[in-house]
């Protein structure tokens, strides 16, 4: 940081206002001053989660109403294990939501033997506005983990659904070059055309697989569409299971 003392002072002002119902004028000014530092500016340019700093005036306005993009950018990663149960017209479904961090992935194999349907969510924003070397790591890890799941013997009879999520944010972001060609070749440069870019990303996940993969492109902003996409896949899977079940 160029001016650490000033940054620390602003941070202390913000921290002191944490429990207040309304932010003080000094706190608002401290928030507005933080992005002025060149180091913070670089972080803002490489991480969409910091885009709030680009909209300080709008967000700190007394009449502020969050936009859809504000809501999307405020999502936090899954921590721990969440489980919900509900009934549909054709089955009782138990959904277990487990985070994708390295720590959370250590718990995945405890559920492999009881999984009927595995839903793998790809955050498309991970392919946007990242430094090239970091993008390479994100790509490699995300695709490698998915491939390992597909090849896992315990999951051999499980059905796979891939949801390419947050497409609306992906469409609006600058898309850098992918790390190497997808299986089967093809150009690695992501087009300005978001549709072509998305197709290239999907190819990296799906082209080399021999098993059936159900996939949809979704956004959490439109929950009904998100749920409909999942239920469409599950309904198709349930219908196939009934068709092959012994009479």
TrEMBL record:
It comes from Onchocerca flexuosa. This is G-protein alpha subunit. GO terms for molecular function: G protein-coupled receptor binding; G-protein beta/gamma-subunit complex binding; GTP binding; GTPase activity; metal ion binding. Mg(2+) binds at residue 78. GTP binds at residues 72-78, 165-168. Keywords: GTP-binding, Magnesium, Metal-binding, Nucleotide-binding, Transducer. InterPro entries: Gprotein_alpha_su, GproteinA_insert, P-loop_NTPase. GO terms for cellular component: cytoplasm; heterotrimeric G-protein complex. GO terms for biological process: adenylate cyclase-modulating G protein-coupled receptor signaling pathway. It comes from the Eukaryota.
């Amino acid at each position: 940081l160029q001016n650490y003392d000033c940054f620390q002072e602003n941070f202390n002002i913000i921290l002191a206002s944490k429990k207040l119902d309304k932010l003080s004028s000094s706190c608002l000014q401290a928030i507005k001053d933080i992005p002025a530092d060149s180091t913070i500016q670089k972080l803002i340019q490489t991480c969409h989660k910091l885009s709030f700093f680009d909209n300080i005036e709008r967000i700190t306005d007394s009449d502020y109403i969050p936009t859809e993009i504000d809501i999307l950018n405020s999502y936090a990663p899954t921590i721990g294990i969440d489980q919900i149960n509900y009934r549909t017209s054709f089955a009782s479904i138990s959904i277990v939501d487990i985070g994708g961090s390295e720590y959370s992935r250590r718990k995945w194999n405890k559920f492999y033997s009881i999984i009927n349907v595995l839903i793998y969510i790809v955050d498309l924003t991970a392919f946007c506005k990242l430094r090239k070397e970091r993008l390479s790591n994100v790509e490699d890890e995300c695709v490698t983990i998915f491939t390992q799941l597909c090849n896992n013997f315990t999951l051999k009879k499980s059905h796979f659904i891939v949801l390419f999520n947050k497409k609306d944010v992906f469409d609006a972001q600058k898309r850098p070059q992918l790390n190497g060609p997808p299986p089967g070749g093809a150009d690695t440069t992501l087009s300005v055309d978001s549709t072509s870019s998305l197709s290239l990303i999907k190819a990296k996940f799906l082209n080399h697989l021999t098993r059936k993969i159900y996939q949809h492109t979704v956004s959490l902003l439109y929950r009904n569409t998100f749920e409909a996409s999942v239920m469409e896949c599950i309904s198709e899977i349930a219908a196939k299971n009934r068709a092959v079940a012994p009479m």
